[in-house]
Amino acid sequence: MNNLLDQITALAKRRGFIYPTSEIYGGLTSSYDYGPLGVELLNNIKRLWWKEFITKRDDMVGLDSQIMLRPETWVASGHVTSFADPLVEDKVTNKRYRADHLIEAWLQQHQDIKDVVIENMSIDEMAEFLQTHAVKSPDGNDITRPKSFNLLFETHLGVVAGEKSTVYLRGETAQGIFSNFKNVLDSTRVKLPFGIGQIGKSFRNEITSGQFVFRTLEFEQGEIEYFFDPEGTDWEQLFKSWQDAMWHFVTSTLGINIENLRWRKHTDKERSHYSKDTYDLEYHFPFGWKELWGIAYRTDYDLKQHIQYSGVDLQYRDPVSGRTFVPHVIEPAVGINRLFLMALVDSFVEKEKRTVLQLKPQLAPKLVAVFPLVANKEELVAKAHSVYKLLKAHDLAVAWDERGNIGKRYLSQDEAGTPWCVTIDYDTLKDDTVTVRDRDTTKQDRIKITKLIDYFHSLFFE
Ligand code: ATP
């Protein structure tokens, strides 16, 4: 297990960012809960995503569709037949692994073999590779031949006319967008090109575990379907503009280091048959370069499939020319939890015996922490409390701490990623000024209480 990932996992648990799900019963595989600080960070990411991609734009609308849809949806989309991973089993322990992951790990130990592109391999080619190289499980045991394992979770609606009916927990949020395409057209004033976006839970019966919240059974996606007229639209330019929008969100809005980001174009063999172009925006996680955010030109595949399976006309009618056609679509799809993990990894710094989460203020679970210099002086505590209330009244996320000494409180807020700490001391009682300490520089400023709100606003919006 990776050292940096271990450190981050420990910090996340200790400070209430992330807990293992059902820990008191021994945990549930690849499942995590978000604690008091974690849920704030998660909500901040979702709020920023929504603001940037829905609220701020004139060509986007939002949606919130259900987790369970009519099962025909997943037949039409192709998930029932081909949403699968190559599964192998350790013949001794019966632990399950993804064949492509075992091959990836094997190749890392055999760097002389360079011409293998795992993404291009069919399940039979993986089987042959595993056999030829006698690849073992991580426990050193023989493994079974890979077989296709469907990732959709199945469940059943209550008894209907004596029969159980199978439904699936959605494997992606996108299909709820396609199936509401006509509703959005009929109920709003959207005109092509336009997009529909939503944030919501998706479920995949993932085989692997051990990469913290990178790959979980239950996760949140932020998905956009951007519809356009294929006639007269330069799709390559449109695709590029969405890549730029994704890049801007990650680097500028979330403040992630560009050295830790790169684009990877899907190979022709790897790409879905209906897609004309697909890129992954990858982040350099502690366990390697991995997909953070995918963008695909899905053509008119999904709408056409739903037209065929539902029998409903999902065409668009151009209001000027009267021409009817099925729009094409570009899909940027991200995992909110992967953005979360990236934010933790990218902001984690250890310096001068301090562990600091250098999160952008917009992401930080708490923006300011307020301390009375000492906890046993009533006047100081009362004054500090009035400052705490003032900041709260201005909708700032404020923490309160009166335990231990100031130094320990600073260390504690550094770990939580709080950008500023405000200390109320004896001078405050005389001149109404407070000390504001900056998390990243540790510099301290003396500020009038009446100027505090403007001070934080200027730093927050710089
Ligand atoms: P991967 O190859 O890593 O399994 P994918 O290509 O299957 O991902 P998509 O179907 O394109 O993923 O889903 C869009 C986004 O949803 C991904 O870029 C990723 O950020 C996120 N995502 C997918 N599966 C998971 C998961 N099991 N846990 C957390 N996030 C996920």
Automatic annotation (TrEMBL):
rRNA processing found in the keyword field: no
InterPro entries recorded: aa-tRNA-synt_IIb, aa-tRNA-synth_II, aa-tRNA-synth_II/BPL/LPL, Anticodon-bd, Anticodon-bd_dom_sf, Gly-tRNA_synthase/POLG2, GlyRS-like_core, tRNA-synt_gly
Gene3D superfamilies according to UniProt: 3.30.40.230, Anticodon-binding domain, Bira Bifunctional Protein, Domain 2
Enzyme superclass (EC): ligase
Keywords, alphabetical: Aminoacyl-tRNA synthetase, ATP-binding, Ligase, Nucleotide-binding, Protein biosynthesis
Record GO terms (molecular function): ATP binding; glycine-tRNA ligase activity
UniProt record, GO biological process: glycyl-tRNA aminoacylation
Coiled coil: none
Cell membrane is among the record's keywords: no
Cellular component GO terms held in the UniProt record: cytoplasm
Superkingdom, natural source: Bacteria
Domain Aminoacyl-transfer RNA synthetases class-II family profile: 6-365
This enzyme's EC code(s): 6.1.1.14
Family affiliation: Belongs to the class-II aminoacyl-tRNA synthetase family.
NCBIfam families: glyS_dimeric, PRK04173.1
This protein's name: glycine--tRNA ligase
